[in-house]
Design a protein that fits this description.
single chain, 175 residues, mainly alpha, globular
Length: 175
């Protein structure tokens, strides 16, 4: 494959999927800069291994899977283990907009995101990919390299675990 063609494929993938991959990485690692680093690494790997991409799945699914794997690698890394809990918590609580209206509008999103963060990683990944990234069960199973039934089970168990961690008042608020 010629360099010009590879460059064009990379540019197209970055334009089409860059924002979505960054959102996915941020949802998993909760650090904007690290999420951007992860996505950059994903695009570098994609570019270097374009010849190995066989097209058995869509480019979107391929890039999502690479992003999830990079996030998992980050959680295994020394750097992640040394992050202060307070830094992780403060990045979640920062709001870009200060008006009261914007705060109230975003409050429910943050509440549900905090609830999602209490779940184990295998449930958090599936729920995020299904509800926020709006991927199909089949696409999620390809990304996570597991069966569709496993994805369905994790979705059901994740929903149930999320409800178990909520008080009765919180369940009413989320509805």
């Amino acid at each position: 494959m010629e360099k010009h063609e590879r460059d064009k494929l990379l540019t197209n993938a970055m334009d089409v999927y860059g924002h979505y991959l960054t959102r996915l990485a941020y949802a998993l690692v909760k650090d904007k800069e690290k999420a951007e680093d992860i996505v950059q690494e994903v695009f570098i790997r994609y570019y270097l291994h374009l010849e190995q991409f066989e097209g058995r799945s869509s480019v979107k699914t391929y890039l999502y899977r690479m992003t999830v794997n990079e996030c998992r690698n980050y959680f295994k890394s020394w750097a992640f283990r040394k992050i202060e809990v307070s830094k992780l918590a403060s990045t979640f609580l920062i709001y870009k907009e200060t008006p009261e209206e914007a705060y109230l509008k975003q409050e429910d999103k943050h509440y549900l995101a905090a609830l999602l963060n209490k779940l184990p990683a295998k449930y958090k990944e599936v729920i995020w990919l299904y509800y926020y990234a709006e991927l199909s069960i089949k696409e999620i199973s390809e990304i996570l390299n597991c069966s569709s039934n496993t994805v369905k089970t994790r979705l059901a168990r994740g929903r149930k675990k999320a409800q178990l961690t909520m008080s009765e008042e919180e369940i009413d608020r989320a509805k």
